[in-house]
Amino acid sequence: MRRVVAVIGGAGSLGKNLCRMALDSGFRILAVDSDENRLALLCRCFPPTEGHLLDVRDTAGVLSLVKRTGVTTIVNCAARKHVGWCEQNAQDAVEINAMASMALTAALADAMPQCRYVYIGTDKSVNPICSYAMSKLLGERDALNRGHSVVRGVNFLFSGGSVLDIWQSQLAAGLAFNVVTNPDCTRFCMPLNDMAALVWQAVLSGKAGMFYPQHVYRISPKALFDGFCIMAGVTNPPVVEIPLSPGEKVTEDLDFAAAVTVLTDPVAVASLLRKAVVWK
User: Fold this and answer.
1) What's the pTM?
2) Whole-angstrom distance, CA of residue 44 vs CA of residue 46
3) Less crowded by CB within 10 Å, the N or C end of the chain?
4) Between the CA of residue 73 and those of 63, 146, 206, 230, 247, what are the distances in Å?
């Protein structure tokens, strides 16, 4: 029997790459998203993809879709992910990142207990200090408590809305670049396609529990920016120094053993970025 995967947030950066992997593997793929334009673009680029315009908070709508199409696995990529935004809009963050997911896992337990569920986690939920981190931690714990899967993410290079995406937009518009220059600040990063591959591994495994990256990079925002400039061919860039957003840590924590490559050389960062560019 052909397996059917529904990707909630399927028109986002991670979701798009998962849809492509599912199609390459011969799966039937349903992309569920609340953004009409991005969903239409995805379906035109990958015609076998079936687009469904739904909000993750519409539990009844999502459940109805899952039941009538015989979905075997749901991957929930939908999230509020900007730390500063979530601090200012905590209720919205909790609704999207936690409550919507918890409502869906509860509905699946009652109506479709055989359907697997994969939740996208974050390293920010390790020793959480902000609304974003706490909302994601709630979603992670609920998925695990109900016997589902959680994939621990870090910062995805070139994901939509990421700092690299913002710099690309600022470059295209001829604007100054907003850069956090705190010398002590670092972030764990991984290419977006590596994260998609890890999520797809969780889907194919059929196993519950946590899935972790085996390799991540630790990069400061300044080194990331310098590497971006090399990759983009930008010299003497205009920079506006900005502080960390409310709720952001200076350094992140990991709760798993992984090979960590520390990159401080902008040339090495630029090399990584060239390999990491994917359709977002």
Assistant:
1) 0.94
2) 5
3) N
4) 12, 14, 9, 41, 33
